[in-house]
Amino acid sequence: MHDGEESLALGESKIQKRRSDALRNSLDSINRFHDPTGDTKTRHELTVAADNLSSNLSEPELDKLRNLLKEGEKSYKQVHPIFAAYDESWILDVQADAQDEDEIRELICEKIDNSGVNEYIFDKLEEDEYKKLKKYELIFFLLPLEDADSFREQLQHELYPYINS
To answer: Which residues are paired to 2 by β-bridges?
Structure first.
């Protein structure tokens, strides 16, 4: 459910050195859900999801999700969450200056709000290549980092602990 409507969230995650690269590459990936081969990609993603449902759901919830995902029912709203992590030079200063976690969050939000990221996204969505995405709900989760490469490596190790061990 999203805003009271049954919704299907098809998201994207990018961890890159530059914010613009993370956002642009995320939009490119989301765009592929809506290009001429998008139905095939969407069906593939839904099949993978249906075969990997969480074990903490009840059997009726699992059945409903399987039916939704495998039958490709189209009565849902599509939402695209986008997670973009990227390097920001100011993150170390914020961490050093803040007195506690609440202040860190507040300062990071302030920096993001003043960074021009909203304008960048809106400008991108005006480009012919991305205009069709304006009819979908895009939800951005931004994570400025001190070292995107290190974060990616740590995340991969957590997700795949037996690879390269």
So the answer is: 5
Domain positions in the chain are: 7-35+75-159
Q: Coil, strand or helix: which one is 92?
A: helix
Please provide the DSSP assignment of 39-86 as one string.
HHHHHHHHHHHHTT--TTS-HHHHHHHHHHHHHT---SEEEEEEEEEE
How many Å is the maximal CA-CA distance in the chain? 52
The model's pTM: 0.83
Q: How many CA atoms lie within 13 A of 52 on its CB side?
A: 6
Spatial distance between the Cα atoms of 141 and 109, rounded to a whole number of angstroms: 11
pLDDT in tens, 110-151: 999 999 999 999 999 999 999 999 999 999 999 999 999 999
How many angstroms separate the CA atoms of 45 and 39, rounded?
A: 10
Q: Strand, coil or helix: what is 103?
A: helix
pLDDT in tens, 54-71: 788 899 988 888 877 776
Q: Find the radius of gyration of the CA atoms of the chain.
A: 18
DSSP letter, residue 132: G
In the Cβ-directed half-sphere of 80, how many Cα atoms lie within 13 Å?
Answer: 22
Q: Considering only the top CATH level, what class is 7-35+75-159? A: alpha beta
